[in-house]
Amino acid sequence: MREPSRLRQPVLDWYSENARDLPWRRPDATPWGVLVSEIMLQQTPVARVLPIWTDWMARWPTPGHLAAQPPGEAVRHWGRLGYPRRALRLHGCAQAIEAHHGGVVPSDYATLRALPGIGDYTAAAVASFAYGGSHAVLDTNVRRVLARAVQGDEYPPNSTTAAERKLAEALIPPLGAARWAVAVMELGALVCTARAPRCADCPITAQCAWRLAGKPAYEGPARKGQTYAGTDRQCRGRLLAVLRQAHGPVPKAALDVVWHDPVQRERALDGLLADGLAEALDGDTFQLPA
DNA sequence: AAGACGTGGCG
DNA sequence: TCGCCAAGTCT
């Protein structure tokens, strides 16, 4: 990018006019609120996160509040957000923050990155959005916008490459890195979408390499389609739903009725136990982890 | 390093 | 209808 500002300024101006009013973006949002939102937003649409986040923050307004609860309560109030191991990891974050960081969400990337469930993206996002840090924030939205606008490809590579990271870092403005990061993400989420991009509403359509090339179809390897019906994942979801709603010990018979195949059912239950999402009181009774 | 890991809405 | 996709992380 010879002139990063050719890309940045229009996106920043667009964001000023089109940013959604999300609670974790408001001035009164705490670093804890930002961290909670980022974990919840992993692979999960904003609309589904909103009500869970609101309930969660009212219930546990600080890491200390959550850390004082058994992990099963985090899993219970995670509801049907999906990927419930995130609830366990968020609980782990709260405990680590209490035990090792004085109850304060860390502000530097490396410390955040060491917390459970916090990878490259989330560490960069929390450091940027909660503390105004300057990092390359590479999520699926940003990767797609850069793939199109700069590389001229419809989609980014299947996994993040060094080239993508280098490009993202080159685009970080000297001032206002966090606002730039959230602005590109928002553009990817609202306009430069995966399926049917709204190029007519795009602030950088004039300089978008992909559009200028005539929107050539994606050529890379097919992205892995995720099946769900009939999988262990679906089975685990059914079993965990029973435990979540139970508010107490659940006899095995109550789990047996939600999945027909006993082999798969046993495997899924063992998986939940191994993951710490459930625990056995005895051989025949189960509950969320206390 | 490919695959596991939830769930539901949309085109 | 049904496959694709959503602010990824971990092993």
UniProtKB/TrEMBL annotation:
- Name the Gene Ontology molecular function terms of this record: 4 iron, 4 sulfur cluster binding; 8-oxo-7,8-dihydroguanine DNA N-glycosylase activity; adenine/guanine mispair binding; metal ion binding; oxidized purine DNA binding; purine-specific mismatch base pair DNA N-glycosylase activity
Which top EC class applies here? Answer: hydrolase
What keyword terms does UniProt attach to this protein?
4Fe-4S, DNA damage, DNA repair, Glycosidase, Hydrolase, Iron, Iron-sulfur, Metal-binding
Q: What is its EC number?
A: 3.2.2.31
| Keyword Iron-sulfur in annotation | yes
Q: Which cofactor does it need?
A: [4Fe-4S] cluster
Q: Which positions fall inside the HhH-GPD domain? A: 40-190
**Enzymatic reactions:** Hydrolyzes free adenine bases from 7,8-dihydro-8-oxoguanine:adenine mismatched double-stranded DNA, leaving an apurinic site
| Alphabetical list of PROSITE patterns matching this protein | ENDONUCLEASE_III_2 (PS01155)
Q: Membrane spanning segments where? A: none
Pfam families given in the database record: HHH, HhH-GPD
The record's listing under CDD domains reads: ENDO3c
The biological process GO terms on file are: base-excision repair; mismatch repair
Q: Could you say which protein family the record assigns here?
A: Belongs to the Nth/MutY family.
- The protein depicted here goes by the name Adenine DNA glycosylase
